# Entry
Amino acid sequence: MGSIACLLSAVAFGVMAVFAKLAYDDGVQLDALLLVRFGLAGLLLLAFSRGRLRLLTRRAVVVGLLMGAVGYAAQAGLYFAALTRVDASEVALVFSVYPLLVMTMAVLTRREPPTRRRALGLVVALTGVALVLGGASAGTFDLAGSACALGSAVVYTVYILVGDRVAGTDPIAFATLVCCGAFATFAVWSGLHGAPDLAFAARGWLWLSLIALVSTVGAILLFFAGLARVGPSVAALLSIIEPVVTVTAAALVFGESLSPQQVLGGALVLGTVLFVQWPGGRDTGRRSAPVQIEPELRSVS
# Structure
């Protein structure tokens, strides 16, 4: 169930780019998108969490808020800043190195043992992502844009590794803190640089609602629930299908065609998921004691 949760989370995150592009077409600006996204998500999660927040330790509350205010806000800011300078496919390709960074840091910090199966699966998956996204990149190299994309991957790596330590206490409550923390950052930013323009087409609110409900609330809850069960390396590796989902969704919604090279790359990525998670072959020695999740949260994963 942890693997399924991670895969569903990747799909939810993957379609966010399509929702965002549709929102931009209806006049939504970047600052408004980020503020409304985390504002709506925070309200929805507060409704879900209710008394759960009181059960968290003070340390978990502080870490959750900081992960949202610093980690998640910085990752989103860098990612979308990169999109303003280079092609989306190039940004996604550079950002997709984060599973390698997560796996490397997990091994270096002795949180997980190195295995040839994971290493091989990661290499094959990254090769597949390169094939899927390589043909879609038509822009020129931009150092600043590529640096923003890489910085986003580094921030997300730290975010995953920190979240692995504390998210298992209660994924719903923790996700609430993350979104509220991110909203606070963008609210302060708006206060310092002027309120965002919310006078866009009514249909724009539909896309923002889908971004908040599907690609933020649903995606974060599923990711934290899966992360608590399978660990950071496997969670990051399963999440690598996210750019494939983005490319496929763009092809379906906007009529973009996939080349044979991209189809082959997608097959490699999905094949890696089966390879890593195949019964009897999956790594099981991720930690000495698994994170326990409350019974009522098992349905989330």
Summary: Confidence is low (pLDDT under 50) at residues 281-301.
